[in-house]
Write a structure and sequence with these properties.
Blueprint lengths: L1 H13 L7 E5 L11 E7 L17 E7 L2 E7 L10 H13 L4 E10 L9 E9 L27 H13 L4 E8 L8 H9 L4 E3 L3 H10 L3 E10 L10 H25 L1
Parallel strand pairs: 1-4, 1-5, 5-9, 6-7, 7-8
Antiparallel strand pairs: 2-3, 3-4, 5-8, 6-9
Helix pairs in contact: 1-2, 2-5, 3-6
Length: 270
């Protein structure tokens, strides 16, 4: 793995992707952050050695280098998912590469279903903690100490400092931010009524199919991270409505400008 990470990193360094300050992962329907960047370089995932290739048509599938408030930012415009058939090691490979390219903080976004009945479509939820129900962990197998410790602590997987800064910026912008516990499931199907009830019972406020493997690896590497979900559908098991992926993307798109602006201001303050 180390050899592959180094090869990908060296390829990107030759493209100018070095001395980075911040990494950002843009989730489903959440790509407008690129408009906040002074773009310096774009590279399609398929051109990068050992990178997975995004299979979802609504993910641009490219790595973008740019400046935000003078900070060098590497943005993943489209992520990888367990349900695409990738292992969690493959899903998190780009984060390993971004670490070698210098990132000191990681911001993540995703689209999620709202289990907490206080959540409504379009709400922004700062993830405070998570539950991992995916069937694989990116840290299984041999653990070269150069990547991180064998047993990383997860008592505070999401940075309190980044979260506090984000909430303060949102308050100044009069944007209501909620907080909650995110549960990651394998997907790709949405959940049944009984599954939503179960997820609520075990403590989940919102549910999605990404983010947790990335957060585990960020903690393993010692990179502070934070994640924000856009609630794209309301998952009330007693009044469950059918939902299609194009509806989910449409709701995420509506929230994209606000979330992108908040992320840009947060990066300015880092």
């Amino acid at each position: 793995m180390i050899h592959r990470i180094e090869e990908a990193s060296e390829f990107l360094r030759r493209k100018g992707f070095d001395k980075a300050d911040v990494g950002i992962v843009l989730g489903t329907g959440l790509g407008k952050f690129i408009e906040k960047m002074e773009v310096l370089e774009r590279v399609h995932y398929s051109s990068i050695p050992h990178f997975p290739v995004a299979t979802m048509e609504f993910h641009a599938g490219q790595l973008v280098l740019g400046l935000v408030a003078g900070k060098r930012v590497i943005a993943m415009q489209g992520r990888f998912h367990f349900y695409e058939g990738y292992s969690t090691k493959e899903i998190t490979f780009p984060l390993r590469v971004m670490k070698l390219l210098g990132i000191k903080n990681l911001l993540l976004s995703n689209a999620a279903g709202g289990i907490n009945l206080n959540y409504k479509k379009g709400d922004l939820v700062l993830i405070d903690d998570h539950i991992n129900l995916q069937t694989e962990n990116p840290l299984t197998g041999p653990n070269p100490e150069i990547l991180g410790p064998r047993f990383p602590d997860m008592s505070q997987p999401y940075s309190r400092d980044l979260g506090a800064k984000f909430k303060e910026i949102a308050k100044q912008k009069v944007v209501n931010i909620k907080e909650g516990v995110y549960v990651a499931v394998p997907g790709p199907n949405l959940e049944t009524r009984a599954e939503y009830r179960f997820l609520g019972i075990i403590g989940a406020d919102l549910v999605g199919m990404s983010t947790v493997p990335e957060v585990i690896v960020a903690n393993h590497m010692g990179v502070p991270c934070m994640a924000v979900s856009v609630i794209t559908d309301e998952c009330n098991p007693d009044d469950l409505k059918s939902v299609a992926i194009d509806e989910i993307i449409a709701v995420a798109n509506k929230a994209d400008n606000v979330l992108s602006s908040l992320f840009a201001e947060l990066i300015e303050k880092l």
